[in-house]
Amino acid sequence: MKPSGYRSYESAWRVHVEPRWRAAKVSDIRYTAVQAWVAELANELSASRVITVYSVLAGVLDDAVRDRMLAVNPARGVRLPRRGRRPNVYLTPEQLHRLAQESGRYGSLVLLLGTVGLRWGEAAALRVSDVNFLRRWIVLHENAVAVGGRTHVGTLKSGRSRSVALPAFVVDELAATCAGKDRDELIWPAQNGGYLAPPTTKSWMAGAVNRCQKADKTFPRVTAHDLRHTAASLAIASGANPKVVQRMLGHASAAMTLDVYADLFDSNFTAVADKLSETVGKMWARGGDAAI
Question: In the chain, which residues have pLDDT < 50?
Fold first, then answer.
């Protein structure tokens, strides 16, 4: 497992599952008891956390079924709380440009995140040698994830490397950032020379957002992950299809991309309808009488 996923499941077991179920025989666990437990958790935890905690117990009982200690899993079929999805926040091109300007030496990082949609750990792990300045490509093969105060460096979330095309102006900004660095150096190192940690509420990014909001009251409160959403919105507005956006973002499937950005593709449906009105509709209007 990835370190971040392991930490989530380990804490779910230690804090919630083991204290409640460690003395229970698997053969004595009933559906109604699991449902009551989930309802109790829902009063204290977020829906996402409840689902993670429940999945640990359900997984243990799945193994009991496979070992033929149980005929069926009593946890399956339990009603779970629905995850409340936070609306995606998108910056306009003008807002992205302003945020990059206010971010100082991290301006090239903001532009990269806001146009290509890298995950934070993917950007933090980038080295000068990962950028092909002539072909305008970045090769992503490492992910630096902060877990429990430590940075774990491993493969990408998908487990596979991927290459992403870069806009020319982003390549220019990256070239300026990389000037004077060795090929194996991190592009954006932390002050101690290690991997740059995700921005916090008191970080350079928070300061840049505050300055943008002082200049423009409509400027949204954005996070580094919102820049990933911004990149998706700009790609879709430029005419990219779901498969292209999927490959750019490193999603597991185009279906996942459509699910996360359904609101953006919905707006495309209106554009498609308008385009059909201009083409097929005009032809129909000219030949409508003949067709009848």
Answer: 291-292
